[in-house]
Design a protein that fits this description.
79 residues; 434 Repressor (Amino-terminal Domain); globular
Amino acid sequence: MGQKNRIKEYRRMLGITQLEMADGKMSKSHFQALESNKKRLTFKKAIVLADIINDLADKKGIDISVKASDLIVDSKDLE
């Protein structure tokens, strides 16, 4: 898959593992596939991940606000 995303960038900024990032909303293997671009990051999945990132950032006292569109570089995936 040619699309790029920013999932790993945000995960590293939060200092969390892939399992923590999957947050019970998806399997670790599915999350790994999204992060490594082996599976397409749809806008629906990006919404879920943005919510997870924002929740985890809030718990860690990190002041960020991530939108689904922030996670996707390829604009065709925003559809």
